[in-house]
Write a structure and sequence with these properties.
419 residues, mainly alpha, 22 helices
Length: 419
């Protein structure tokens, strides 16, 4: 019996087994990294830390039977369509029916046929003439050929303000280049459904928090998972391994101090041995052709915050909404810049900071009309947070995140009671 089963760890009960303070203290202590082959050092370093454990089978398998049922229904629909086509062909060849009767039969068949749609309809910003004019107006007002003397970035050489516009234009191209297939569950995967992904993301948020990693690491890990699953079919039993390896790769790309292989294996309840983990890492890296340059939403959020004079309350609340997007399948292929702008827009509305100005349009690249649909979806997700993103809600209910998730609930209660 492995360590996870001895502790009885599951996704729903993981928070009670983790000593956050010990984890933070251990990860921040310099010179205490684990030497991969040393059992004594491993035991010393991991003392006081509980494993996250594997995702419970009930959480991952709750819709496995629905997959078979859904595919059987799709097969039946296909067979029924073939039968309808044959019937229509017979009707056209019959001499005893008038043209009006044949047309009536065709109309009945068209009305009975239902359009085929995917389980998740991906969201993207609308573009029309009004939007184009609004963005053009903002750019004409705020764009300049010289550095802004009132912008603090002008005096910070690490921000390379001279190249700011060129850098973000390039990042806009990268977010399109590295966007995953929004329909990979239906088109590529055979054992997985979107509910499985939501469960994995809630677990990944907890694992990310236990190692006290950067926000950029989490978003890059999510992008790696989605891009990998867009091209590679995996089994349900290897799904959690996919998530752990993706976070490990993202940490190597973004972090200064990276969790070791031993730590990663320990935190997932020793489900996989060292060799399995490393083989999976090599396979994932090669499948993605060593391309991990997807820009996450945090860079775009920081740029948009210039229009708010770097208001910390708006940014903290916006981070909560951004993390909600990793759970929802509708945002799998949505541009990170659009999500960042939508999170900022929603935060301003809930905090009563006023309207969306031309300065916000200039720094984010999106108008209020483009962001309004995101506001509606964020509200919808927060109204059902227990089912949609419980782990993220608990994370942002902490004092260090200004209890952002709890504030949103109070706002929604007040808003709907007034209506």
């Amino acid at each position: 019996m492995n360590r996870a089963s001895e502790l009885g760890v599951s996704t729903t009960g993981v928070s009670s087994y983790i000593n956050d303070e010990n984890v933070k203290r251990e990860l921040k202590r310099k010179g205490q990294s684990i030497r991969e082959g040393s059992h004594d050092r491993k035991a010393s370093h991991l003392k006081g830390r509980k494993v996250l454990g594997e995702i419970s089978e009930s959480a991952l398998n709750r819709r496995t039977s629905e997959i078979r049922k859904k595919r059987d229904e799709e097969t039946d629909i296909y067979r029924d369509k073939e039968a309808d086509d044959e019937e229509m062909s017979d009707l056209e060849n019959r001499d005893d029916l008038t043209e009006d009767e044949v047309e009536n039969k065709e109309e009945e068949a068209d009305e009975a046929e239902e359009p085929v749609c995917y389980e998740n309809e991906p969201m993207s910003p609308i573009v029309n003439e009004k939007v184009y004019k609004g963005i053009t107006r903002a750019y004409r007002r705020y764009s300049r050929d010289t550095l802004d003397p009132d912008d603090e970035d002008t005096y910070d050489i690490s921000m390379v303000a001279e190249y700011g516009n060129e850098i973000f234009n390039y990042m806009h191209k990268l977010e399109i280049k590295y966007a995953p297939n929004p329909h990979y569950m239906e088109e590529v995967q055979t054992e997985l459904v979107w509910d499985h992904r939501a469960t994995l993301m809630n677990w990944l948020v907890q694992l990310h928090s236990r190692f006290n990693l950067l926000p950029e690491t989490l978003y890059l890990a999510v992008n790696i998972i989605d891009r990998f699953l867009s091209s590679q079919t995996i089994s349900l039993s290897r799904f959690q391994l996919c998530g752990a390896v993706a976070l490990f790769i993202a940490a190597k790309y973004e972090e200064i101090t990276v969790p070791t292989v031993s730590q990663m294996i320990y935190m997932v309840g020793n489900q996989f041995n060292r060799e399995e983990f490393l083989v999976a890492e090599r396979f994932m890296v090669e499948a993605l052709k060593f391309e991990f340059g997807s820009p996450g939403p945090m860079s775009f959020l920081r740029r948009g915050s210039k229009a708010d004079d770097y208001d910390s309350e708006i940014r903290t609340l916006a981070k909560y909404f951004l993390e909600i997007t990793i759970v929802d399948s509708r945002f799998v292929a949505s541009p990170a810049s659009w999500l960042a702008a939508g999170a900022q827009y929603t935060s301003r509305r809930m905090l009563g900071r006023g309207g969306w100005t031309d300065a916000h349009v200039y720094y984010t690249g999106y108008t209020a009309e483009q962001l309004e649909p995101l506001y509606s979806v964020f509200v919808e997700c927060c109204l059902s947070y227990k089912k949609h993103h419980k782990a993220i809600f608990d994370k942002y209910a902490q004092r260090r995140f200004r209890r952002s998730s709890m504030y949103v609930q109070e706002y929604l209660k007040t808003y709907y009671s007034e209506k």
